[in-house]
Task: inverse folding
């Protein structure tokens, strides 16, 4: 499991272009799923398991 996320990871795993992947990462940050941008470092994934992720999705 990944505990860090990045635009490039989404691009590779989902075969997306940069703009779409960046937009998704921004939306994940707004939802509280990944942490803020820290320069060139990967973002920390803030949810620890699927149950927490479901809780986040229900609150949207």
Result:
């Amino acid at each position: 499991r990944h505990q860090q996320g990045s635009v490039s990871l989404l691009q590779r795993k989902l075969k997306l272009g940069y703009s779409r992947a960046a937009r998704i990462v921004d939306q994940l940050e707004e939802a509280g799923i990944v942490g803020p941008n820290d320069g060139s470092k990967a973002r920390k994934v803030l949810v620890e398991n699927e149950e927490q992720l479901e809780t986040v999705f229900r609150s949207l």
